[in-house]
């Protein structure tokens, strides 16, 4: 980061967007309201932009401000990922398992699985690495992770695998987009003509959509995080494609609208590990937990593991 763009100010602007109040955002960030106002004024002066509109009813982001917030969410996600990874590298673990997971699985499912793992094995101190599906496979294959979870229909070479669930992608648009009023499913021809906000190449979301569309899409913006993708779509950059479970709140609040299409956007969620090795107990338990969570309540299927 350059000296004239600090992370604390970006986090403050995101908080203003989410709370609709400069004072509430200041309280969330643990600073005074005058200090928060000064930071916003300094940011606006430095970049010659009006990003926050202040009124007696509260504070709201301007159009430029919402664009800044959508970019900031992506930057902050990457920074937080780096920080978490660095902390994991410097933390000595008594016993543990290194888990690599693609973004959708890591955000929506893995935390619950790890919570159950903690109940069963409180001594285990797992490390979670959040990367795209292609990098998950590379990380597991190289031995940098014990187990991985991907959201791609294309299974990686050289790894054992087991499906642990299913996900569905949705096409989403801003409420003011012309597609938001569509009732009939969009045709493949209409979808191919659009300019998209999409995840990066190598992600399970992107590979699933590319395969369903049957050609390389025209990309208006490429995002490496779900938050950045949803923010850019809500700001009107273009229609986006994202996991339905990742944007459930935005859909319920009306910030995004799901649009029906004729594409098949279902995809499996898959666990992968090095097939030449048996899963050690913590990794085996995590796979069993994932299988159980995807079932209808019956016992988890038997999984490979090292004997005690």
TrEMBL record:
<dbReference type="InterPro" id="IPR036390">
    <property type="entry name" value="WH_DNA-bd_sf"/>
</dbReference>
<dbReference type="InterPro" id="IPR005119">
    <property type="entry name" value="LysR_subst-bd"/>
</dbReference>
<dbReference type="Pfam" id="PF03466">
    <property type="entry name" value="LysR_substrate"/>
</dbReference>
<protein>
    <submittedName>
        <fullName>DNA-binding transcriptional LysR family regulator</fullName>
    </submittedName>
</protein>
<dbReference type="Pfam" id="PF00126">
    <property type="entry name" value="HTH_1"/>
</dbReference>
<dbReference type="InterPro" id="IPR000847">
    <property type="entry name" value="LysR_HTH_N"/>
</dbReference>
<dbReference type="InterPro" id="IPR036388">
    <property type="entry name" value="WH-like_DNA-bd_sf"/>
</dbReference>
<comment type="similarity">
    <text>Belongs to the LysR transcriptional regulatory family.</text>
</comment>
<dbReference type="GO" id="GO:0003677">
    <property type="term" value="F:DNA binding"/>
</dbReference>
<keyword id="KW-0238">DNA-binding</keyword>
<keyword id="KW-0805">Transcription regulation</keyword>
<keyword id="KW-0804">Transcription</keyword>
<feature type="domain" description="HTH lysR-type">
    <location>
        <begin position="5"/>
        <end position="62"/>
    </location>
</feature>
